Amino acid sequence: MGLSRVRAVFFDLDNTLIDTAGASRRGMLEVIKLLQSKYHYKEEAEIICDKVQVKLSKECFHPYNTCITDLRTSHWEEAIQETKGGAANRKLAEECYFLWKSTRLQHMTLAEDVKAMLTELRKEVRLLLLTNGDRQTQREKIEACACQSYFDAVVVGGEQREEKPAPSIFYYCCNLLGVQPGDCVMVGDTLETDIQGGLNAGLKATVWINKNGIVPLKSSPVPHYMVSSVLELPALLQSIDRKVNMST
């Protein structure tokens, strides 16, 4: 790590600042209720939602040849057909998808303590939101949780040539804020994108948010720091700056 103070912090969005996984689970529960009450599915409702969750986790999205709405409606259509058999039911798939999506967005909120932390941090350093994913999906989340005003800049991977962990997107962020990679800290919950990307770009430090106490694989990227909550960040940044002061 260089001998300059931290001048900028890059934050991941999903499962770092907002509980995307929890919001998604709530969306799935609403779909299960719909399928059971309106369409009289029994255990098939949960099986369908489990199948969709697997499809989402394996999703490969290419923005130039796919619309995210079509792609995700197809996940539901396939899951229903795989579970129930018979002809494809696009209309039911659309109903499930839009209920899941709208419920998920309703539950994507910035907690009050996270808002307060961002507000305080921004008095000391520049803040940038750096999120991978499809442009439409990520912009809808940013709007739903009303987080844009807490940041000096927002960068969505799906709008760029490359996403995290490519160094190019980190250099783009540095240029936006007028800082050097050695001035910046990356904070996120995903070792393969947030942490690997920060390491690839030569940032001052990477901070892994490990809420569930996961033991990483030996082959995983190694973060400079690990915390269980993003709310531990201000104290950590102070300690990083203290090390700089002691070194100089």
Automatic annotation (TrEMBL):
| Origin superkingdom | Eukaryota
> Which is an annotated Pfam family here?
Hydrolase
Entry annotated with the keyword S-adenosyl-L-methionine: no
Required cofactor names:
Mg(2+)
Pathway(s) it belongs to: Amino-sugar metabolism; N-acetylneuraminate biosynthesis
Q: Name one GO molecular function term.
A: N-acylneuraminate-9-phosphatase activity
* Catalysis performed (reactions): N-glycoloylneuraminate 9-phosphate + H2O = N-glycoloylneuraminate + phosphate; N-acetylneuraminate 9-phosphate + H2O = N-acetylneuraminate + phosphate
InterPro entries xref list: HAD-like_hydrolase, HAD-like_sf, HAD-SF_hydro_IA, HAD-SF_hydro_IA_CTE7, HAD_sf
Keyword tags: Carbohydrate metabolism, Hydrolase, Magnesium
Cite a single GO BP annotation: N-acetylneuraminate biosynthetic process
Q: Known EC number(s)?
A: 3.1.3.29
Q: Which residues form a coiled coil?
A: none
UniProt KW Hydrolase keyword: yes
Which family, according to UniProt?
Answer: Belongs to the HAD-like hydrolase superfamily. NANP family.
| Name of this protein | N-acylneuraminate-9-phosphatase
Q: Which organism is it from?
A: Pongo abelii
